[in-house]
Write a structure and sequence with these properties.
Blueprint: H1 2-22, H2 29-49, H3 55-76, H4 84-103
Length: 104
């Protein structure tokens, strides 16, 4: 269950990062609300997952999941381009996150 909560918290990290960008410097109220709620839930989930997963592993997985999903959301929204090198690096990052799960 710790891993499920950790992955969900990583997904919420991508939500709050995307909402933070959409808030345009905290000038748009709804993205600010989404940012605050998702960030709170993300960090609470991370803290809970750390009860059963070592801190270094949990943090690396949380950041990795959030980073990959944030990039993918930005690509889908047309805000960033996904070249071959970036795609390969994201796949490698996913592989590292999966590897942490396997060896834990």
């Amino acid at each position: 269950m710790y891993w499920v909560v950790l992955i969900a918290s990583g997904v919420l990290e991508a939500v709050w990062a995307t909402a933070l960008s959409a808030s345009k410097g905290f000038r748009r109220p709804w993205p600010v609300v989404v940012f605050a709620v998702s960030m709170t839930l993300s960090v609470v989930g991370l803290a809970w997952a750390m009860r059963g997963i070592p801190v270094g592993t949990a943090y690396a997985v949380w950041v990795g999941v959030g980073a990959v999903l944030t990039v993918l959301v930005a690509v889908l929204r047309g805000e960033e381009k996904l070249g071959v090198a970036r795609a390969l690096l994201l796949v490698a990052l996913i592989g590292c996150v999966a590897g942490l799960k396997v060896v834990s």
